[in-house]
Amino acid sequence: MMKKATTYIHAGMEPDPSTGAIMTPIYQTSTYVQEAPATHKGYEYARSQNPTRTALESALAAIENGKFGLAFSSGVAATDAVIKLLEPGDEVICANDMYGGTYRLFTKVFEKFGIQFKFTDTTNAENVKAALSAKTKLIWLETPTNPLMNISDIAAIAAISKAAGCLLCVDNTFASPALQNPLDLGADLVMHSATKYLSGHSDVIQGALVMNSSDLREKLYFIQKSCGAVPGPMDCFLVLRGIKTLGLRMKAHCENGKAIASWLRNHPKVGKVYWPGFEDHPNHTIAKKQMSDFGGMLSFELKNDSMEAAKKVLSSTHLFSLAESLGGVESLINHPSSMTHASIPRAERIRNGLQDGLIRLSVGIEDADDLIEDLEHAIG
Q1: Which residue from 33, 73, 340, 378 puts its CA 20 to 30 A from 127's CA?
Q2: Residues 30 and 119 occupy one common structural domain
Q3: Are 223 and 262 in the same domain?
Q4: CA 109 from centroid of its chain's CA atoms
Q5: What tens digit of pLDDT does each residue of 237-265 get?
Q6: Is 47 annotated in the active site?
Q7: Residue 156 and residue 18 share a domain
Q8: Does a cis peptide bond (omega within 30 degrees of 0) precede residue 147?
Q9: Which tens digits make up the pLDDT trace of 152-165?
């Protein structure tokens, strides 16, 4: 088996058979000429198949140590496809700290079709076991979670899901395949917002699913083809290009994340810092076991935990751009309560520990000293 650094460069890549081009061409076509009715070269219509997307899907499988990859038009579209495996009356156990767009999809779209969602503290696997019922068909994890950086034990929860006969899907967006491989730990499915670390350059919207089961792949491919939430060939090309530098970028994200988390923790005006690399993080031992490093995502609260104080910081940075999303080479600063998680009712956010003054950072790959100076200026 190739080492990760080699896999990122070569996964899914074959020289173009017609020209020898080393980079996968952007097959900007909607249809394909057939030799005779139903006799073709594996491609019929671009919603169903596209050679650029095929290359990307092979790469996605390889970097997650899976057998099959599927690319979607966004991370939410990939999540949507997984939930479409279910039927009315089925139940999903999911983390009580999650991306607001996932929460919105679950509660505002799928609940009205009779699918029930049990929001659970998944940081303790026993809570997941206690939430199981005969109707449970899927466990949905984020680890680390967005935005509180909670950690769930993938292997322990995979054992629970297998004993119960239900699927386990892990949103691996915050860690990326460079730091964590849920399929190796027993998960059935891995989901990515490929917009983030896989692309790495804030220039594409895309989602991905990776799995080992051929049956699961066929079911999800049918949904992908039938519902049509597929990425265009240019987007696939961009993610393929981004994957080539994933290993190098993640090393820099991790180094900068550690430096800034440690600096924030020692700042007199900063209260709690949420980062799984701290030894006193509630599930640090699990994070250390299932991750090779701790990433560039972190959140923090000011000691003066007011919206006004938080807004001052959010509006005073120069290198940290105030924007949604994460995982790009540039650093971003975000206010979850009013931005990425605004769709979650405030009472529920507070109950789960997401305070109004929480600030989330996506630490980029700039020089760490410059980023710290930027935060020092903003925090004062």
Answers
A1: 340
A2: yes
A3: no
A4: 20
A5: 999 999 999 999 999 999 999 999 999 99
A6: yes
A7: yes
A8: yes
A9: 999 999 999 999 99
Q: Which entry of 4, 53, 137, 196 is annotated as an active-site residue?
A: 196
3-class SS at 237? helix
**Contact between 68 and 215 (Cβ < 8 Å):** no
Sequence letter at residue 320: F
Collect contacts of 286-291 with beta carbons under 8 A, ≥24 apart.
Answer: 286/151, 286/152, 286/153, 287/144, 287/151, 290/143, 290/153, 290/154, 290/155, 290/180, 290/185, 291/175, 291/179, 291/180
The one catalytic residue among 171, 188, 235, 293: 171
DSSP-derived secondary structure for 66-130: -SEEEEESSHHHHHHHHHTTS-TT-EEEEESS--HHHHHIIIIIIGGGT-EEEEE-TTSHHHHHH
> Which of the following is catalytic: 8, 27, 99, 274?
99
Question: Domain check: are 120 and 223 in the same one?
Answer: yes
Domain assignment of residue 321, given as a range? 247-379
- Look at residue 304 in the predicted model and tell me its pLDDT: 87
- Show the CA angle centred on residue 327, arms to residues 322 and 330, nearest 5°: 55
User: Is 189 in the same domain as 327?
Assistant: no
99 is catalytic: yes
pTM for this structure?
0.96
Note whether 122 and 233 are same-domain residues.
Answer: yes
